[in-house]
Write a structure and sequence with these properties.
Length: about 400
């Protein structure tokens, strides 16, 4: 009787086979999602479905934060109120000055017939939590596609730029902070107007201003604002300040270290800008000529030039042969030249030599001799002239 284990202890495929199967399945899902975005819809559905659970998980935190806010002392509230009053007065003065400058700017733009730039709309949002990846600088805000949040929209605070929207879900959005190593913002220096691009650093605290020539005028303390040339960020938003400038003789670019103006990690309330660029689109670029097509065109031109040179050489040879044949025929007929004709004949035999019909190509036809040999008819004319005038 053959022994077989009971059904309870049957294990099915081996552990190694299951490991290989699940590893292959994971690789297929990773590659397909990275290249073809096959799981983007699934991720959006899961994000919308897990949103209530996320809010429920944030309830204890919100409870403790609310309790801590209630424990603020009256002295802290009075100091904050004083600071807010001073800040409000300063902002009122700046608003009045901005209104005067806006009116003057509108008048100058009307004189120069320039297009007017309108202010961008903004949507307030709150940062809910940070992402779980420790190697990236990203946060999640509580606004999504249902609130007209668009992918690539700039995110700012009251101090300046803090990041950009890089992924949008129905009820949430992911924001890549300014200090992320893969984030880049076109900026310009307020003092000199020098334009460049600022990048985040792997440390996540400072910024790196790249592509600055070593001869550029950059000083510590210079303010950097958005240039607006990329069509994503409005012009004039504060970005960073220069902390250190390192110039070395063996490099073409200086190393400029900057610090963000806004508190990137400490902000809670932010604004998402709906900016529409007024910059006209770039003109269509001509398609580059392939090397093979260029070689074929050059070979065709060279063949045409050679054919033209050969035709010119043949035409010049035919024109030079005809006068010689005519002179030989006249000599066989023994026709004596008249004294008047011989007297008026040129003394230089080369003057009666026929001229070629077309100028031959120097590369295909050899250069004729400077003094060609006289024809037989010319020799007889010269001999008759010598006998009549001894």
């Amino acid at each position: 009787m053959e022994y077989s284990p009971p059904p309870l202890f049957k294990q099915g495929p081996s552990a190694l086979a299951r490991l290989i199967l699940f590893v292959a399945l994971s690789l297929v899902l990773l590659i397909s999602d990275a290249r073809f975005k096959t799981l983007e819809v699934v991720r959006g559905v899961l994000g919308a479905g897990l949103y209530p659970l996320q809010r429920a998980a944030l309830v204890p935190r919100d409870f403790f934060v609310g309790a801590a806010d209630l424990a603020v002392t009256s002295a802290t509230l009075r100091s904050d109120n004083t600071q807010l009053h001073a800040r409000n007065l300063q902002l009122s003065q700046q608003a009045n000055q901005a209104a005067i400058l806006a009116a003057e700017n509108a008048h100058l733009r009307a004189l120069l017939q320039l297009s007017q730039h309108f202010g961008a709309q903004a949507t307030p949002a709150e940062i809910q939590y940070d992402t779980r990846d420790p190697f990236t600088q990203k946060v999640v805000i509580g606004r999504g596609s249902q609130q007209d949040i668009q992918n690539g929209a700039p995110v700012v605070s009251e101090d300046g730029v803090i990041g950009q929207v890089t992924r949008v879900f129905p009820l949430q959005s992911e924001v890549t902070l300014l200090t992320d190593k893969d984030q880049a913002v076109p900026v310009e220096i307020v003092r000199t107007g020098l334009r460049s691009v600022i990048y985040g650093t792997p440390q996540g605290a400072l910024l790196d201003l790249r592509f600055v020539p070593i001869s550029a005028d950059v000083q510590v303390g210079d303010e950097l604002v958005t240039s607006g040339l990329d069509g994503v960020y409005p012009q004039g938003l504060p970005v960073a300040k220069v902390l250190r400038v390192d110039k070395q003789a063996d490099t073409a670019f200086a190393r400029v270290v900057c610090a963000p103006v806004a508190t990137v990690r400490g902000a809670r309330q932010v604004l998402v800008l709906h900016y529409v660029s007024q910059v006209p689109p770039r003109p269509a670029e001509l398609e580059p000529v392939s090397p093979d097509a260029k070689k074929k065109a050059d070979a065709k031109k060279a063949a045409e030039s050679k054919a033209q040179a050969a035709a010119a050489a043949q035409a010049s040879g035919t024109a030079a042969a005809k006068p010689g044949a005519t002179a030989g025929t006249g000599a066989g007929a023994n026709t004596a030249p008249s004294p008047t004709t011989t007297a008026n004949a040129p003394q230089n035999p080369s003057a009666t030599a026929p001229q070629p019909a077309a100028k031959p190509d120097r590369t295909a036809v050899a250069k004729p001799a400077a003094n060609p040999a006289p024809r037989p008819a010319q020799q007889r004319a010269a001999h008759a002239t010598t006998r009549e005038n001894p």
